[in-house]
Amino acid sequence: MARLLPSALEKLIDELGRLPGVGSRTAERYAYYLLRSDQRINDSLSHAIHDIHHQVKTCPVTFALIDADQEISPLYADSDRDKTLIAVVEEPLDIVAIERTGQYKGTYHVLGGAISPIDGVGPEQLHIPELVQRIQADGVTEIIIATNASVEGESTALFLQKYLKDADIDIIMSRLARGIPVGVDLEYADQITLSHALEGRRSLN
Q1: Can you list the alpha helix ranges (DSSP code H) found in 56-190?
Q2: Is the pLDDT assigned to residue 1 strictly greater than 60?
Q3: This prediction's pTM
């Protein structure tokens, strides 16, 4: 059967289709848009994609994403932030979601995912030992477990609660209040919902 589209266009559609949430029809629309766009737009997009692996790295303390020329996360280095309070999140983009509320003045710790046996992700793949080190080094008095309101997020929260108790770490543990609908990832929650969730967090002790 004869090829319906030029090979270069088909390849672009295939690559765009690898992105999460992008189906074949959406990939086709994106590819056709880029084909019709000014070359400068395509060049800018190409450079941005190329640079992301060279100009972005992970903070060795909080595991947030930072510029390649930075030593640690600016939020952690900020003297106005309360280092005795840590919000534990699954992914770096969850930090952006919470920061947009303007309600939180503590620091963050990115686990790097959530416990999901079906996906082969266990506690050993998460940055939990590093969290314990931070609790001890920074004299942390409270952690807010801000994992997603999903089965995986709840499992991770329960594991973290038990892990810290078994390690005899005397600390206040709280969970974001149920303002966030079940099944909604933190990065997609609106600012008002997140604000209420932060204000109404509950203790796990």
Answers
A1: 74-77, 92-99, 128-137, 151-166
A2: no
A3: 0.80
